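Lab manual, section 2.4: Encoding a predicted structure.

Procedure: take the sequence of the chain (95 residues), apply the prediction step described in section 2.3, and record the output as structure tokens. A sample record is shown.
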Amino acid sequence: MRIEFRGEIWTWRGPSPYYFVTVPARQCDDLRAISGFVTYGWGMIPVTARIGTTEWTTSLFPKDGRYIVPLKDKVRKAESLMEGQRVTIQLEIRQ
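Recorded output:
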């Protein structure tokens, strides 16, 4: 399964800041439909993600009835991304 969407980068400020993009509701419905087949626990869904020319492996986190994509520092630096910026993300679900 492949998903592409646009979303805004936001920050969760914990002991160190973490950056995420929230998956839109419509795509979250599709993800929930397959989550039982691909999750490895706590509702996490393994994916290969891509922004621009940068690709990485990560897992989608469930949050407030939707899913969020964590953005690694190497991705933000490679693509010159900042909080509040809108990005196009491509996701491929891994099993």
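Check your result against the sample. The two ends are 10 Å apart (CA to CA).
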